[in-house]
Amino acid sequence: MPKNDISWKRRTPDGEKVELYAHHVGSIWNFYTRGGRYDRWQFTPQPPLEDWMALLDGVERLIARDRMRPEEADRLRKTMRERFPDAKV
Q1: Considering the domain boundaries, does residue 35 fall inside one?
Q2: Domain tally for the chain?
Q3: What own/partner pairs with CB < 8 Å and gap ≥ 24 does 81-89 have?
Q4: According to the model, what pLDDT value does residue 2 have?
Q5: Residue 32 located in a structural domain
Q6: In the structure, how many helices (H) and strands (E) does the chain have?
Q7: Residue 46's domain spans which residues?
Q8: Contact 44, 33 (CB under 8 A)
Q9: What is the mean pLDDT of residues 11-16?
């Protein structure tokens, strides 16, 4: 996984553990998931708000370490507001 990818883990509503990562391409974030270490990564076309919030947290951490530009967090928040207008971002 390249250095600019952001990864995290979470549990599904069924209690199953999944790994996720987001890859930044231009102005788009692509999300991928897999169930276990040896499973194949699967593209996730419509990730839930929970995954977007985890991505925002990762972006803010990279900004604090000077590994990403501060404008990226604002762009990400704008994208999240467009996709989830009722959510507080």
Answers
A1: yes
A2: 1
A3: 83/52, 84/49, 84/52, 87/49, 89/56
A4: 63
A5: yes
A6: 2, 4
A7: 6-83
A8: yes
A9: 93
